[in-house]
Design goal:
Blueprint: E1 23-25, E2 30-33, E3 42-46, E4 51-58, E5 61-66, E6 69-74, H1 93-96, E7 102-106, E8 114-117, E9 122-123, E10 134-137, E11 144-150, E12 156-164, E13 171-177, E14 182-185, E15 188-191, E16 200-206, E17 209-217, E18 220-227
Protein backbone atom coordinates (compact mmCIF):
# COMPACT_ATOMS: atom_id res chain seq x y z
CA UNK A 1 0.00 0.00 0.00
CA UNK A 2 1.34 3.48 -0.80
CA UNK A 3 0.47 6.19 1.66
CA UNK A 4 -0.77 9.53 0.38
CA UNK A 5 0.75 12.09 2.69
CA UNK A 6 -0.15 15.63 3.59
CA UNK A 7 -1.63 17.78 6.35
CA UNK A 8 -5.09 19.26 6.15
CA UNK A 9 -6.56 18.64 2.71
CA UNK A 10 -4.21 17.15 0.15
CA UNK A 11 -4.47 19.33 -2.91
CA UNK A 12 -1.90 17.74 -5.17
CA UNK A 13 -0.77 18.84 -8.63
CA UNK A 14 -3.95 18.46 -10.67
CA UNK A 15 -2.91 17.83 -14.26
CA UNK A 16 0.73 18.83 -13.66
CA UNK A 17 2.41 15.50 -14.29
CA UNK A 18 4.89 14.69 -15.61
CA UNK A 19 7.34 17.36 -14.44
CA UNK A 20 10.43 16.80 -16.64
CA UNK A 21 12.44 19.54 -14.90
CA UNK A 22 11.36 18.55 -11.38
CA UNK A 23 9.66 20.74 -8.80
CA UNK A 24 10.62 23.99 -7.12
CA UNK A 25 9.31 26.04 -4.23
CA UNK A 26 8.70 29.74 -4.78
CA UNK A 27 10.25 32.03 -2.20
CA UNK A 28 8.02 34.94 -3.26
CA UNK A 29 4.82 35.59 -5.19
CA UNK A 30 5.02 35.57 -9.02
CA UNK A 31 2.76 36.63 -11.87
CA UNK A 32 1.88 33.70 -14.12
CA UNK A 33 1.77 34.84 -17.75
CA UNK A 34 0.47 33.29 -20.96
CA UNK A 35 3.84 33.61 -22.77
CA UNK A 36 7.47 34.39 -21.83
CA UNK A 37 7.13 38.16 -22.05
CA UNK A 38 6.54 40.91 -19.45
CA UNK A 39 3.80 42.22 -21.76
CA UNK A 40 1.92 38.91 -21.92
CA UNK A 41 -1.49 38.42 -20.35
CA UNK A 42 -1.46 37.65 -16.61
CA UNK A 43 -3.21 34.33 -15.97
CA UNK A 44 -2.86 34.16 -12.20
CA UNK A 45 -0.66 35.07 -9.23
CA UNK A 46 1.31 32.25 -7.64
CA UNK A 47 1.71 32.68 -3.87
CA UNK A 48 4.99 32.56 -1.98
CA UNK A 49 5.65 29.02 -0.79
CA UNK A 50 3.87 27.41 -3.76
CA UNK A 51 5.48 24.21 -5.00
CA UNK A 52 5.24 24.14 -8.79
CA UNK A 53 6.08 21.64 -11.52
CA UNK A 54 8.89 22.87 -13.75
CA UNK A 55 8.08 21.96 -17.37
CA UNK A 56 10.50 23.85 -19.67
CA UNK A 57 12.61 26.99 -19.90
CA UNK A 58 13.18 29.89 -22.28
CA UNK A 59 15.95 32.25 -21.20
CA UNK A 60 15.03 33.75 -17.84
CA UNK A 61 11.51 32.39 -18.11
CA UNK A 62 10.24 29.05 -16.83
CA UNK A 63 7.06 27.30 -17.92
CA UNK A 64 5.40 25.91 -14.78
CA UNK A 65 2.25 24.18 -13.64
CA UNK A 66 0.48 24.87 -10.35
CA UNK A 67 -2.73 22.99 -9.47
CA UNK A 68 -3.41 22.33 -13.14
CA UNK A 69 -2.81 25.91 -14.30
CA UNK A 70 0.14 26.38 -16.68
CA UNK A 71 2.01 29.51 -17.59
CA UNK A 72 5.30 31.39 -17.60
CA UNK A 73 7.13 33.10 -14.74
CA UNK A 74 10.32 35.20 -14.87
CA UNK A 75 12.63 34.19 -12.04
CA UNK A 76 16.19 33.61 -10.95
CA UNK A 77 17.49 30.70 -8.91
CA UNK A 78 17.77 32.82 -5.76
CA UNK A 79 14.01 33.33 -5.74
CA UNK A 80 13.18 29.61 -5.71
CA UNK A 81 15.98 28.01 -3.70
CA UNK A 82 14.45 26.34 -0.65
CA UNK A 83 17.68 25.42 1.05
CA UNK A 84 20.81 26.97 2.52
CA UNK A 85 24.18 25.49 1.68
CA UNK A 86 25.81 23.89 4.69
CA UNK A 87 27.79 20.93 5.95
CA UNK A 88 26.14 18.05 7.78
CA UNK A 89 26.10 18.52 11.55
CA UNK A 90 28.30 16.47 13.85
CA UNK A 91 25.36 14.27 14.92
CA UNK A 92 24.07 13.88 11.34
CA UNK A 93 22.72 10.50 10.26
CA UNK A 94 24.51 10.98 6.93
CA UNK A 95 27.89 11.34 8.59
CA UNK A 96 27.32 8.49 11.03
CA UNK A 97 26.20 5.97 8.39
CA UNK A 98 28.56 3.31 7.12
CA UNK A 99 29.84 3.92 3.58
CA UNK A 100 27.72 1.13 2.09
CA UNK A 101 24.51 1.97 4.00
CA UNK A 102 21.44 1.98 1.75
CA UNK A 103 18.52 4.30 2.39
CA UNK A 104 15.94 3.49 -0.28
CA UNK A 105 15.18 2.22 -3.75
CA UNK A 106 13.88 4.91 -6.11
CA UNK A 107 13.15 5.43 -9.80
CA UNK A 108 15.23 8.14 -11.47
CA UNK A 109 13.78 9.99 -14.48
CA UNK A 110 11.65 7.00 -15.48
CA UNK A 111 14.61 4.63 -15.49
CA UNK A 112 14.81 1.35 -13.63
CA UNK A 113 14.79 1.67 -9.84
CA UNK A 114 18.12 1.93 -8.08
CA UNK A 115 19.30 2.08 -4.50
CA UNK A 116 20.32 5.36 -2.93
CA UNK A 117 23.19 5.24 -0.49
CA UNK A 118 22.96 7.39 2.61
CA UNK A 119 26.31 8.94 1.66
CA UNK A 120 24.73 10.33 -1.55
CA UNK A 121 22.25 12.46 0.39
CA UNK A 122 22.77 16.10 1.29
CA UNK A 123 21.48 17.82 4.45
CA UNK A 124 18.46 20.04 3.84
CA UNK A 125 18.75 23.30 5.75
CA UNK A 126 15.62 25.33 5.04
CA UNK A 127 15.76 29.12 5.35
CA UNK A 128 12.30 28.98 6.97
CA UNK A 129 11.33 26.06 9.20
CA UNK A 130 7.82 26.11 7.70
CA UNK A 131 9.34 24.72 4.47
CA UNK A 132 9.86 21.42 6.26
CA UNK A 133 6.11 21.03 6.79
CA UNK A 134 4.32 18.38 4.75
CA UNK A 135 3.66 14.68 4.39
CA UNK A 136 6.53 12.26 3.90
CA UNK A 137 5.81 8.87 2.35
CA UNK A 138 7.76 5.64 2.12
CA UNK A 139 7.87 2.97 -0.54
CA UNK A 140 4.99 0.47 -0.78
CA UNK A 141 5.29 -2.29 1.80
CA UNK A 142 7.54 -0.43 4.20
CA UNK A 143 6.61 -0.64 7.84
CA UNK A 144 6.95 3.08 8.42
CA UNK A 145 4.46 4.41 5.93
CA UNK A 146 3.64 7.95 6.99
CA UNK A 147 5.26 10.85 8.77
CA UNK A 148 3.48 14.20 8.99
CA UNK A 149 5.48 17.31 9.81
CA UNK A 150 3.53 20.44 10.64
CA UNK A 151 5.00 23.77 11.75
CA UNK A 152 1.73 25.68 11.65
CA UNK A 153 1.16 27.01 14.27
CA UNK A 154 3.83 24.90 16.00
CA UNK A 155 5.83 21.74 15.48
CA UNK A 156 3.68 18.62 15.44
CA UNK A 157 4.64 15.20 14.12
CA UNK A 158 2.59 12.09 13.63
CA UNK A 159 4.08 8.77 12.58
CA UNK A 160 1.80 6.10 11.17
CA UNK A 161 3.13 2.55 11.23
CA UNK A 162 1.75 -0.50 9.44
CA UNK A 163 2.41 -4.01 10.70
CA UNK A 164 1.55 -7.31 9.02
CA UNK A 165 0.41 -10.19 11.24
CA UNK A 166 2.20 -13.25 9.81
CA UNK A 167 -0.53 -15.61 11.09
CA UNK A 168 -3.66 -13.78 9.95
CA UNK A 169 -2.01 -11.71 7.17
CA UNK A 170 -4.01 -8.76 8.44
CA UNK A 171 -2.51 -5.29 8.36
CA UNK A 172 -2.65 -3.31 11.59
CA UNK A 173 -2.12 0.44 11.70
CA UNK A 174 -0.85 2.46 14.65
CA UNK A 175 -0.43 6.19 15.07
CA UNK A 176 2.22 7.78 17.26
CA UNK A 177 1.84 11.49 18.00
CA UNK A 178 5.29 12.76 18.88
CA UNK A 179 4.10 15.70 20.93
CA UNK A 180 6.21 17.28 23.69
CA UNK A 181 8.85 14.52 23.72
CA UNK A 182 10.28 15.66 20.41
CA UNK A 183 12.83 18.34 19.67
CA UNK A 184 14.38 19.80 16.52
CA UNK A 185 17.99 20.93 16.24
CA UNK A 186 18.51 22.60 12.87
CA UNK A 187 17.56 19.89 10.32
CA UNK A 188 17.54 17.04 12.85
CA UNK A 189 14.62 15.58 14.80
CA UNK A 190 15.05 13.73 18.08
CA UNK A 191 12.24 11.64 19.59
CA UNK A 192 12.16 10.58 23.24
CA UNK A 193 8.74 8.88 23.09
CA UNK A 194 9.19 5.28 24.25
CA UNK A 195 6.66 3.80 21.81
CA UNK A 196 7.75 5.88 18.81
CA UNK A 197 8.91 3.87 15.76
CA UNK A 198 12.14 5.88 15.49
CA UNK A 199 14.44 7.98 17.63
CA UNK A 200 16.19 10.22 15.13
CA UNK A 201 15.50 11.69 11.69
CA UNK A 202 17.17 14.18 9.35
CA UNK A 203 15.73 16.40 6.64
CA UNK A 204 17.65 15.66 3.44
CA UNK A 205 17.73 16.59 -0.23
CA UNK A 206 18.67 14.49 -3.24
CA UNK A 207 18.83 16.62 -6.34
CA UNK A 208 15.50 18.43 -6.57
CA UNK A 209 13.80 15.98 -4.21
CA UNK A 210 13.29 16.58 -0.50
CA UNK A 211 12.82 13.92 2.13
CA UNK A 212 13.22 12.66 5.65
CA UNK A 213 15.93 10.14 6.48
CA UNK A 214 14.90 8.03 9.45
CA UNK A 215 17.02 5.72 11.55
CA UNK A 216 14.63 3.06 12.83
CA UNK A 217 17.44 1.25 14.65
CA UNK A 218 21.26 1.54 14.49
CA UNK A 219 22.23 1.10 10.82
CA UNK A 220 18.62 0.51 9.70
CA UNK A 221 17.30 3.40 7.59
CA UNK A 222 14.11 4.47 5.87
CA UNK A 223 13.89 7.31 3.36
CA UNK A 224 10.53 9.03 3.09
CA UNK A 225 9.97 11.47 0.22
CA UNK A 226 8.17 14.73 0.81
CA UNK A 227 4.85 15.06 -0.95
CA UNK A 228 3.84 18.59 -1.88
CA UNK A 229 0.47 20.10 -1.08
Amino acid sequence: MRWILGFGIVLGFWGCEPAPKGEMELAQAFLLRSSPSPLAQVIDTLPAGALVSRLKEAGDWIYVCYRGIRGWIAIDEASVRDYIEGEALDNSLILAAAEDSVAAEVAVDGASPRYVRVSELQPWFAPDSHLYAGFYEGLPGEELGLVIVNYIPSLAILAKVTRLDPETMEVAEEQFPMGPELRRESNLLFVEEEEAPFRKAEFIRWGSRRGLLIERSPGNYSLLWRRSL
